[in-house]
């Protein structure tokens, strides 16, 4: 069914939006093609595969372009069969636009994520963790027990224990904390839970920065794929530092370790952590605004 368009919709000419969709696909292919090639060979990559294995968005979903809420795609009538879209009429011609009614059943989840992103943007950064969450995930374990068993540890289990004991654990992110070994859990200053996450996530956390991609991808039709791709690009950089500061030896993959077991390495980690935080600020702001607009649109249709 085609209905008259909301006059607030911004029309986008067919040539324009198809060109943007193609550019998005080309950008994403530079990330997904190596991932798919590795999967065919049965290979794993601890840095570049993480965003595809830890988060639920598949390469095909990431490749698809969405304009975001409030845009009408002229000549996009075929999208009307997509449950997230509806067909409207602009100057007598059909156009496709994201339908906020589609997200009504996910309203509570959308509100939770919107609040999480908004509150984390306003919270002061904590820059004293030194990336030791990865160390806490192997604390007290032998090589054959570690999560990334394909990659050797560059320190002995006793040395890892000493580094953690000497520096302490100050992880604020639940989805990192939940992978701590039983021996490491009581050493953390906090005991994050899913319920306390909105009060703990903060912009200095690498995992909170990577999660911007998770939340954007979860509501890609509402926030737009350009923002999703921008968040993905930054999440890749955050994951790189995440693993370079980890106790694994990834030299064979071209990753030089950030030796957080030394004062110089901890200083380097904080410097790069701060750089990622600064880069995440505009993305966090864009995502918070897009989610708030989506939530308002969903509520307006109730």
Concise account of the structure shown:
The protein has 302 residues and is an alpha/beta fold. Helices cover 50% and strands 7% of the residues.
Describe the structure using short key phrases.
single chain, 302 residues, alpha/beta, five-stranded mixed beta sheet, 12 helices, 50% helix
Question: What's the SSE blueprint?
Answer:
Blueprint: E1 2-4, E2 10-12, H1 14-41, H2 50-53, H3 59-63, E3 71-74, E4 85-90, E5 93-98, H4 107-122, H5 133-136, H6 157-167, H7 174-177, H8 197-200, H9 206-218, H10 220-223, H11 225-244, H12 263-301
Helix pairs in contact: 4-12, 9-11, 9-12, 11-12
How much strand? Answer: 5-15%
**Mean pLDDT value:** 92
Q: What is the spatial order of strands in the main beta sheet?
A: 1-4-5-3-2
- Helical run tally: 12
Radius of gyration: 22 Å
Order of helices and strands: EEHHHEEEHHHHHHHHH
Instruction: State the low-pLDDT regions, or none.
Output: none
What characteristic shape results from the CA principal axes?
elongated
Record field, number of beta strands: 5
Largest sheet: 5 strands, mixed
Protein name: 3-methyladenine DNA glycosylase
Organism: Longivirga aurantiaca
């Amino acid at each position: 069914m085609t209905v008259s368009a909301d006059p607030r919709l911004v029309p986008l000419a067919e040539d324009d939006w198809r060109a943007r969709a193609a550019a998005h696909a080309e950008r994403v292919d530079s990330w997904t093609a190596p991932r798919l090639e590795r999967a065919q060979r049965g290979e794993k990559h601890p840095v570049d595969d993480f965003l595809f294995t830890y988060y639920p968005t598949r390469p095909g979903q990431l490749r698809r372009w969405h304009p975001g809420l409030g845009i009408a795609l002229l000549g996009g009538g075929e999208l009307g069969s997509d449950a997230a879209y509806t067909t409207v009429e602009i100057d007598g011609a059909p156009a496709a636009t994201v339908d906020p009614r589609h997200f009504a059943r996910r309203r509570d989840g959308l509100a939770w994520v919107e609040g999480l992103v908004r509150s984390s943007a306003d919270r002061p950064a904590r820059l004293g963790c030194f990336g030791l969450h990865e160390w806490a995930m192997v604390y007290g374990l032998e090589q054959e027990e570690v999560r990334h068993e394909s990659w050797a540890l560059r320190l002995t289990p006793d040395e890892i224990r000493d580094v953690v004991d000497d520096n302490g654990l100050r992880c604020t992110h639940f989805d990192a904390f939940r992978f701590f070994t039983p021996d490491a859990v009581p050493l953390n200053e906090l005991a994050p839970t899913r319920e306390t996450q909105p009060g703990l996530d903060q912009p200095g956390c690498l995992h909170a920065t990577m999660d911007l991609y998770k939340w954007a991808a979860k509501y890609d039709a509402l926030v737009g794929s350009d923002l999703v791709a921008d968040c993905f690009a930054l999440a890749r950089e955050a994951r790189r530092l995440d693993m370079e500061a980890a106790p694994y030896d990834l030299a064979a993959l071209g990753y030089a370790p950030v030796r957080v077991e030394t004062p110089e390495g901890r200083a380097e980690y904080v410097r790069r952590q701060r750089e990622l935080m600064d880069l995440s600020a505009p993305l966090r702001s864009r995502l918070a605004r897009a989610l708030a607009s989506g939530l308002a649109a969903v509520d307006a249709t109730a």
